[in-house]
From TrEMBL, chains A, B:
It comes from Desulfosporosinus youngiae DSM 17734. This is FAD/FMN-dependent dehydrogenase. The keyword Oxidoreductase applies. The keyword Oxidoreductase applies. Residues 38-217 form the FAD-binding PCMH-type domain. One of its GO terms (molecular function) is FAD binding. Belongs to the FAD-binding oxidoreductase/transferase type 4 family. Its cofactor is FAD. InterPro entries: FAD-bd_oxidored_4_C, FAD-bd_PCMH, FAD-bd_PCMH-like_sf, FAD-bd_PCMH_sub2, FAD-linked_Oxase-like_C, FAD-linked_OxidoTrans_Type4, Oxid_FAD_bind_N, Vanillyl_alc_oxidase_C-sub2. Keywords: FAD, Flavoprotein, Oxidoreductase. SUPFAM superfamilies: FAD-binding/transporter-associated domain-like, FAD-linked oxidases, C-terminal domain.
Amino acid sequence: MLAREVLQELIKVLGEENVLTEQEDLMTYAYDATAAMKHHKPDVVVSPNSTEQVAEVVKIAAKNNIPVYPRGSGTNLSGGTIPISGGIVLSMLNLNKIIEVDQDNLTATVQPGVIIQTLNNEVVKHGLLYPPDPGTVATATMGGSLSECSGGLRGLKYGVTKHYIMGLQIVLANGEVIRWGGKTVKNVTGYDLVALFTGAEGTLGIITEIIVKLIPAPEARKSILGVFDDVDKAGKAIASIIRNKIIPATLEIMDNVTIQTVENFVHAGLPMDAQAVLLIEVDGYREVVEREAVLVEQILKEEQAIEIKIAKNDQERDLIWLARRRALPALAQKRPTTVLEDATVPRSKIPDMIKAIRKIAEKHNLQIATFGHAGDGNLHPTILTDERDQDEMKRVHLAVDEIFKTAISLGGTLSGEHGIGIAKMGYLDWEFGEAGVAAMRRMKEALDPNYLLNPGKIVRRD
Amino acid sequence: MLAREVLQELIKVLGEENVLTEQEDLMTYAYDATAAMKHHKPDVVVSPNSTEQVAEVVKIAAKNNIPVYPRGSGTNLSGGTIPISGGIVLSMLNLNKIIEVDQDNLTATVQPGVIIQTLNNEVVKHGLLYPPDPGTVATATMGGSLSECSGGLRGLKYGVTKHYIMGLQIVLANGEVIRWGGKTVKNVTGYDLVALFTGAEGTLGIITEIIVKLIPAPEARKSILGVFDDVDKAGKAIASIIRNKIIPATLEIMDNVTIQTVENFVHAGLPMDAQAVLLIEVDGYREVVEREAVLVEQILKEEQAIEIKIAKNDQERDLIWLARRRALPALAQKRPTTVLEDATVPRSKIPDMIKAIRKIAEKHNLQIATFGHAGDGNLHPTILTDERDQDEMKRVHLAVDEIFKTAISLGGTLSGEHGIGIAKMGYLDWEFGEAGVAAMRRMKEALDPNYLLNPGKIVRRD
């Protein structure tokens, strides 16, 4: 419970309408999109309308030693926005202006509460594109996706959020406001705090303004689907595409469990006994897209795809992607709880990882479907379970542990795009060792010595 | 002077042949490529042959409170490698192995002493490219260019060093060795230390292994030269190229002072009274290069270029680039001292910046030639002077101050690609404010509390 005086201070800064304390309101901020996580209600939810108000809130919090949890749309998948120690949830949704689209410098300046898709709807008018496209692009905010360094389907060719963040305005833990970076392509002035704060999950400072890089929108695209009776053959096709210097915008894979489930759900015409499906989209200049699509088809044939489809028009394209887009909803309806994991390995290790996941599923008697971004090595093993079944959940946790161990042993990483949050904090020393975790802790303490900004995420007090 | 016991410890770890203490040897490590900088001899120069040896040296230094200066080829331009407080210069040139070129994952793993060009000579055999190309590409090391986050001519289309660094092995100030990042395109595990250490100028840790991203080498390229009688017209041409969604690999500009000097030096056929020359190279797929070259020519005409040349073959291409490549040597032979500055503004502000530099030159009665990377807003105002002339050097310093103030006021930054080092440390609070500099200091102290790693660069003890 917050002291009455603190609440009064918050109301004085923000106005009564931007300070929520009713239990029904607090309840809706007690969780995020992460499955099987304990809910924690905050003491208050505040919605600032300016950077100055954010700074005031942070100063009030600092003075009274109250945790602050910045929050966008709450779509994150690692428990990163759950207010685990109570305190203030700082909803950034009122800060939702697109401040500028600068066509000469190919940048946009936005407030953190802007929805990713809203920005893209605006820049497309100028023939431009903001490439990062997490699955939640229509809901997630720019601030949230920056703080989680979201990825998505276009990572292979276009990179992820961090490759598009050029400048930031940041409120530090002491309430001071700094600006870093800007509209220049080149910038080596001081430590790269723009990069450090991207993906820091709101634990080092609060982002209040963002300059992003835009690119010319590709003028053409073509989608190709390849069906395989063997995961290794699909893996060889992936390698061959890259070795032929084709970098598709999207290169997705679905395993047999996913194919079967999706096919039952949407009837897209996928063979139920296929062991892997590759969904490929090349984009860019018209002539190049034509040339690359032919080459991809040829490679799929060489690598013994049992079926190949090339979309001839937008309708056929949508059909190809329907199965992939419906993968998660299809899987989610099979069992009450869907644990969507995020295991990432070098692209060449995709077949090894898929086979390892299959073995782990068998060993622990679990249903695990695997799909994801084969082109950038980012797989989503999805465990279909029921969080009320304690025995099964124990096995789920064991399986998750083994999946991460396997990913790291294959030269991969704990998280490709979902972040560490609460969910993966316990695994960090597997990847970084104690020395690495200690280095992160020292950095956290350098910028937020009292652990007031999104505490209990990424690193905990020693 | 180092204590004899410390020297003995270093010799024990590295062998006598890798520990230099002769005055003649130390002298050559007392400076770097930066003009008009005071020389400082180190007490010893050591050349480790492994990460373990680097860690041992750092531990010896930490135990005895001795500064350590990591150094590649010493080509940097901000005094970043000068051992200003004496101590140990850690030459990384023995660590010069290309460990792996991974064609499936499009990565290379290298030691920090590898020369950039050596890496490119190797990867080109596989049709691949490591895009960062500072002017010193044939001399500078991967470790040095990573630590300075070098840029170069291809920044507009391909970005700079930081966009290609995927993984690092780092020796921390306490001698502990950590690994961060890896071969996966996506990685959001923990704070992005890979990004933080890139461009940190060796002040946060010593890099001992680097995983870089490679891209397919472009299959074609075409060079175009446009001559203008007015800087603003050149500026409009730059804007029009970008608005037409053409992103050239290279888009360089030279001002009138540069043109005159270079023309006298190489006789490339540039009109002596031209106010600006644009040098443009488009690259990529053959069909696209053809299409874009035609479009660029058309734009140059529309924006009233008084002369346009399109290279029809490699020989003509070399001629177009001869003037640009010889700009610095041509300028350097005019006066004894060449102060090569690095002022970076948003691309749209290039004409304003060039005109401002011209006014500053007139005001302080100095010769300043300006050329640089117009496409990415990174200009190199080059002051032709004589460091023995104290009165003129005073005016040089005043002019440099005004150049940086102007760059920042135009939304630019202190340094696009040369780094802060010693040279620009005093200007940092103009860009970041005291709160920003303090944040950097806290980060430095979190990772190197005793200021032993390249001390006196970027941030100083308070």
